[in-house]
Every structure is written in structure tokens, then in C-alpha cells.
Amino acid sequence: MGAFRKLLSAAFRPRPAGGPYVKDSMTILVTGGLGFIGTNFVLGHLASGGDRVVDLDLATYAGNPANLAHLPPESHLLVRGDVCDRELVEGILREHRPRAIVHLAAESHVDRSISGPAAFVQTNVVGTFTLLEAARAHWETLTGAGRDGFRLIYVSTDEVYGSLEPDDPPFTELSTCAPNSPYSASKAAGDHLARAYFRTYGFPAVTTHCSNNYGPYQFPEKLIPLMTINALAGKPLPVYGDGRQIRDWIHVEDHARALSLVLDKGVPGETYNIGGRSERANIEVLTSICGILDAEAPREGGAGHLELAVHVADRPGHDRRYAIDSTKIESELGFMPEYSFPDGLEATVCWYRANARWVESVTSGEYREWMKRHYGMDGWDSPPEGLPGGTLAARRGPGLRRTAGLAPRRWRSDMRIPWRRPWYGVPDRWPRIMKRPEERRIGALAAVGQTRAGSRPDTDRKSARHGPEVGQPRARKAASHGPEGG
Prior knowledge:
The chain is α/β, with parallel strands linked by helices. It has one domain (2-470): NAD(P)-binding Rossmann-like Domain (Rossmann fold, 3-Layer(aba) Sandwich), CATH 3.40.50.720. Helices cover 34% and strands 13% of the residues. It is built from 14 helices and 15 strands. The strands form four sheets. It has an eight-stranded parallel sheet, with helices on both faces. Strands 7-9-11 form a three-stranded mixed sheet. Strands 8-12 form a two-stranded parallel sheet. Strand 13 and strand 14 form a beta hairpin. The protein starts with a helix and ends in a 16-residue tail after the last strand.
């Protein structure tokens, strides 16, 4: 306990309110670091030798503390709290004096914004305003290189641009803002605030708009993890409308690398679009997932996983197509995605199969209630007789068969998803802090010290320790994850 008390004492030692930064104590503040994009950004940032991370997160349904529990406290400090809490945010900035802020905390699921928009306005608009106000006050105390180098990266979404027709060119940074859902409208409000703070106060805010993300640690309310987990469980695969809605997909590790580039090289007041140049219709994505599972985890009796697909009533105001032109970030900052969509999707499906314990930990309680309310299906139970919009498979699409009520067997809450060791891409290069197979991640950003193939990983750090947590969550629910694919 003596060493732990010394660590806490060092972490909370008062620092001067202003002046230049101390080079050997560089820190960045990340909001929403326990969520999907936040987790992958923090892991990638630390794996590349980045600054210490102070992580402000309320740890709501989509924020999982276990994602980063293995990080040592000298690298990652978790502060449980609400981004809308001005006093808490100001205290963090005063205490840790970060050189930059990456703002990922957001409510991000469109379906939830339709059924409950108030939480989206509170977190995405009021929370962003609160953070900007506190950050501006902090920035104004800085001098010299500290003031010149400070940045706030506001992570937004391509959905603020609205919907494209089939033959329209992809969105650019100059495209008109035309959000069509409460979620995208709340994110657009944050865009406008960030721009206004730069134009009015000179505050060094930078905005990014990213296309649909996929990869490890994504909460299974989004398309790819939802379809993967349901297919493995023999449950219906709900497809909105005809399934021909088109999205541009980018692997979350590529998005995390792009954010690191913006953090290091981004120009204040600028906007950068981040895309994967991988447009796919939702039904194509589902077909690919089912093809992977047919090869890796065949259903009993030989039936294909795609036979579980069912068409349900379309989402109100569902945007037909998103596409991102990422020429600016590619030419100015040197960004280029490393994952092709087929390879990234296969790796992602394998990750969810391998991490059954993680899946089980997040698909309980609130998640089951949401699934029951929204899709009419109940967690791990057997398929229901109907879904919103009519009976199962009442509407067919190309390549889909009528599959009402079909499932190879009943799944109970005490049954596990089949586990099978996947291909991880970087064999025999796992740092010692990765203790259990289900904690391993596909790709190069598995943990602190993990590097891409061909590089020597750092294996000297100790394992499985939480950073110290300070603050208490408030009663009001706020999101802990950034804009995501789905």
C-alpha cells in the first residue's frame, strides 16, 4: 500500500496553473476512452509510445472498464465522471494540464436517438459545450509552446452531411451539413460549436468526420457485431427494409491511427474526413459475415447462416447512402487505411468468436431490455414469432429466404458462444500483459507495447492493473463512446 499511496501522491501533486508544459510529464485527456473507438484509440496511442492518458468516462452501457484494465496506472488514469460536469472537467484540466484533448464521449446509436433524443442533446451538445468552455479557460492560462501546441480534437461523424443518392460524389469537407436523425443533429451541433470557438476565440479545435467503424470491442447494437453474435447463437438476423443502405466502412484501428495523425499534425480550425473507401450495402456485409461463419462455424444440419436473415420495418428517416472522400487527410497528413474490408471483417468476426466471455459480459441486463424493446427478441432466448413490421421474413430481399421461426437449437442464458482459436495475424508476438486468450485482440494494437508485424513488442510491463479511479458517476446516464459504425 505504501507504493500505491506514493503513486497517488505524485499523481495529484499540485502544479502551477499556467506557463509552459513540462516535457517529461506530457498528458492527453481522452473523453469516452472506455467505449469502442476510445478503447482502440487509447491502446493504439500508448502502443506507439504516446503520452500518458487521462480518461474521463461515465462507464455507461457501452463503456467497459475491462477493456483497459490491463494498462498500468503510469500510462492510463481512469476518471469516472460526466463530461457535462463543468467542475469535474475543470479540476482534471487544472490537475493534469494535458497538452491536448480528444473528445470521443458521445451518445452514438441512431435507433436510441429516435426513441430517446434527450440524452443525445444532453451529452453530445451540452457535454461538448461544457468541455469547450472548460478547455478554453484552461488554454487561456497557457503560454509559449504550451499554448501554441494545444489542440482539442472533436470526433464527429459523416452522418452530419445527410444522405447521398446512388450517383452522388462522396462527401467532402465542404459538403453541406444536413443531418436527418436526432443523433446526427446533435453531432452537427457540436461541429458548429467547435467551429465557432475557433472563429470567435481562436481556440485550437479540429473536427474529424469518420465513416462507419467496425472492429474489436464494438458494442453489439451495431450492424457487424449484432449480426455476428446473433448468427453464432442461431438467432434471427434483422435487416432494415431491403438492406440496400450503403455505408463506407473503416476498421477502427485505421480510424485510431488517423486521429493520432490529426492530433500530431492537424491544423486548428480545419476539418478532416476519415474514410475507408469501402462502400458496401448492409445486405452485402451480412452476406459476407454469414460466408465467414459458414466456413469457420457451420450450423448444425448444414443450413447456411444467411437463412436466419429476416426483413423488418425500416428505420424512420433512414439515410440511404454515406460515402467519404478522404483525399484531404491523405494528401495533407499522409493517412492511408491499412485494412482492406474483407480482411478486416474476417478478423473482426474471428475476434467476436474468440472473445465469448467479453460478449457475454456486455450482452446482459440493459442490452437484453433494449433488444426486447427494439427488435422483439430477448437476449439469448429462442427466436420470437414476430419482429417489428410483421412476421419474421415477411419481406424478402435478394438472396434471402423465408426463415420464420427457424433455429438449429434453443439457446439459454447459461450457454456459451462456441470458442475457437482464430488467426491473429501476428503469431507468437503477444506481450506478457495479455494473460487470457479472450483478452487478445486481432491486429497490431493489442496492448501497450504491441507493434505491427516485423517490430519488436515491448514485453517489460506488468499485467492486469487498473489505473486509479477518481470521482464518482452521476446518476444521469451519459455515453462513453464515440461515433461508430452501424
